[in-house]
């Protein structure tokens, strides 16, 4: 392969509403850039294969696995991490519901669960219980908080139906 294949490249990312100019290697994943370069710790490194869901972010509003996406492929797209979904002062309804339902034990899967549910409710405001299970089927929780997670989804669904403009999302 030509030497230029291994050269670093300049990329522009839009994360949580802020523009970032970065220089990354050709194999840099979105997860590596988010955590190592931008200091965003919501998305977690779990399996590195896109199978556990811990690294889930939104790309243009769609849940995506950041550990398998090359950073250079998401230039000029809207990337939202857990930190950009809501704030401490104004959490997203899904974040509030997970807190209220105590839907965490170790918390490692929480990022993926919350980001997946937020994307689901944005596209399907009143999902069936089966649709929720299907959406979360690729998010692994080893602690057994499944019932609390499902209760949190029900709470978030009700909260968002009561106040559809109250998404808590940051610009």
Describe this structure in words.
By secondary structure, the protein is of the alpha+beta class. The protein has two domains: 3-84, Beta-grasp domain (Ubiquitin-like (UB roll), Roll), CATH 3.10.20.30; 85-162, DNA polymerase, domain 1 (Orthogonal Bundle). The chain is 35% helix and 15% strand. Strands 2-1-5-3-4 form a five-stranded mixed β-sheet, sandwiched between helices. β3 and β4 form a beta hairpin. α3 (93-100) packs across α6. 39% of the residues are buried. The model has no long low-confidence stretch (mean pLDDT 92).
Descriptive keywords:
single chain, 171 residues, alpha+beta, Ubiquitin-like (UB roll), DNA polymerase, domain 1, 2 domains, five-stranded mixed beta sheet, 6 helices, 5 strands
Shape: globular
Largest sheet composition: 5 strands, mixed
Using only C-alpha atoms, the radius of gyration works out to 16 Å
Going by CATH, what is the homologous superfamily of the largest domain?
Answer: Beta-grasp domain
């Amino acid at each position: 392969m030509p030497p230029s294949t291994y050269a670093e490249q300049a990329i522009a990312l839009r994360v949580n509403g802020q523009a970032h100019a970065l220089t990354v290697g050709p194999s840099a994943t979105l997860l590596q850039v988010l955590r190592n370069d931008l200091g965003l710790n919501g998305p977690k490194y779990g399996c590195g294969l896109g199978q556990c869901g811990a690294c889930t972010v939104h790309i243009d509003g769609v849940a995506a696995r950041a550990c398998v996406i090359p950073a250079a492929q998401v230039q000029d797209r809207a990337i939202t991490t857990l930190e950009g979904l809501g704030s401490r002062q104004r959490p997203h309804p899904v974040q509030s519901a997970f807190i209220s339902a105590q839907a965490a034990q170790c918390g490692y899967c929480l990022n993926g669960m919350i980001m997946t549910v937020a994307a689901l409710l944005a596209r399907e405001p009143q999902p069936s219980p089966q649709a929720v299970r299907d959406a979360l089927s690729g998010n692994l929780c080893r602690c057994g908080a499944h019932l609390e997670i499902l209760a949190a989804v029900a709470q978030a669904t009700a909260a968002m139906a009561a106040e559809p403009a109250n998404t808590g999302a940051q610009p």
